[in-house]
Amino acid sequence: MAAAKRLVVGSRGSRLAVIQAEELMGQLRNAVPQLELSLVKIRTQGDRDRKSPLSQIGGRGVFVKELEDALLRGKIDVAVHSLKDMPSQLDPGLQLAAVPVRHDPRDALVSGSGKTLSQLPSGARIGTGSQRRALELQAFRPDLKACPLRGNIDTRVSKVCLGELDGVIVAAAALERMGWRDKVTEYLPIEVFLPAACQGALGVEMRAGDGAAAATVALVNDEVSWQTTAAERAFLRTLGGGCRSAIAAMARVEGDTLHIEGMVAGLLSSKTVRAKLAGSPQTPEELGKKLAQKLLDMGAGKLIEEALLSTNQ
């Protein structure tokens, strides 16, 4: 199949989302110099409502649905997402076409005082919009206060600069893409802060059956990034926890082995189950499913049910 001659790229309109889309477009231009590219910015439900918790307005899909609708209507040819925002099960007619080279998957602390999480005084206020991060923070430093926080990366970091919060925990990749490495006080260790599945990765989504677009987008796919995120997405899909649950997963390839670690935490209890497995990079989805089943055997199902109970309270 010949590569496409022109592609219309869809993205959310936030500064970070546009940077991510431009990152992809630059990679596509390097791969196909003659390719004509244009960018369409689309406002999603998650952008319109920046105050309500994600669990109340629809979870991961709130940042992708309008882009997916634009794909299905033919308004755009490809959509660029933060892969962790994408549902693990896509609607009919759509496909994940590529995962470019993944950026740092870790969480990072931006602290107003320059102190690390270990150094911050008791009672310090740490902003996060993630149930996972809040629970991991509580487990690490129960004397710190996790404060609910929504908004773009600019808004969240500004809360620290203005002194409204002592610190925020955000994705290291977001700070990296914004050119804000100098704002990172501390990269949080995965032993304590296991990241969200697919954190740091971009997902390129397109209409199923669009062969020319698929042939073009495939040129920017990174095999290792595809394998690790495929394992993590299969892990999520098998657990079926959705955004309301505190679920984390991170995979890595070392030599000819794919390693994956996963965690599920209860929102109403202090219980956590965590495990890891290793297998072949050639069958990442199988490994992700096996790890999910292992956690379900350890009681993860009950912890996921807690998330539904907490949402209804």
Question: How do you describe this structure in short?
Answer:
The chain is of the alpha/beta class.
Number of domains: 3
SS field, number of helical segments: 11
Any idea what the CATH superfamily of the largest domain is called?
Answer: Periplasmic binding protein-like II
Give the DSSP E fraction (strand runs of 2 or more residues): 15-25%
CATH fold category name of the largest domain: D-Maltodextrin-Binding Protein, domain 2
Measured on Cα atoms, how large is the radius of gyration?
A: 19 Å
Helix/strand order: EHEHHHEEEEHEHEHEEHHEEEHH
SS-derived structural category: alpha/beta
* Average of the residue pLDDT scores: 91
In the CATH classification, which architecture of the largest domain applies? 3-Layer(aba) Sandwich
**Highest-level CATH class of the largest domain:** Alpha Beta
Strand order of the largest sheet: 2-1-3-10-4
Main sheet properties = 5 strands, mixed
